[in-house]
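Subject: sequence -> structure tokens, single chain

Hey, anyone have a minute? Need the predicted structure for the following. Not urgent.
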Amino acid sequence: MEQEKHVLVIFPHPDDEAFGVSGTISSFIKQGTPLTYACLTLGEMGRNLGTPTFATRESLPGIRKQELLKAANAMGITDMRMMGLRDKTLEFEDDEAMTQMISDLIEELDPSLVISFYPGYSVHPDHEATARAVVRAVRKIAPSERPKLHCLAFANNTYDDLGHPDIERNIADAKDEKLNAMHAHISQTARWLEMIEEGIKVNDPEALKWVTTEQFYSYDWENDLVE
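Reply:
Had a minute. Here:
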């Protein structure tokens, strides 16, 4: 894995990091790279309240906060930022305020790599609002000084529009950390985990992908459509 000065990971919800980037996060930390994870909300409007019910709307934020801290510990994160915005409202936040929040993090940390979602290809309104704010903040930096921006994308039209990801990281050495991070968010991930772990047991190729590789797109500044 390439050496970075500092990595800044920005996602809107607890568990956004677990499935897509927790292996990458753990791998960077294992090689001694400083890493900060900024989580914009506590996912307090998550759908899953359990069967039987284990949480209420009032108690879920506290549960998800503790799950986020547990996941951070599983990945080895020591700089965990909870940014205090509200789940399912990010698309209604002031654009300039969101961008400035990201800019402030970048100015403080001076990362050489930022990881987030790809605008237009991350499905959920909170994902999209986060992705747009990240792009705006990074775009304000002179091209020669910008950190790299690596993005997750998983909309149905991703391959048609963007092609295949240009970055693929082998995260096999971080398999246990990734599984532990996913387990930490058990209130939201139980069904997915059951399917993945059953597949791993029988060496199902699709299940094994979750714990062996993580893929990203380098943001295409030449085709930047974020307003």
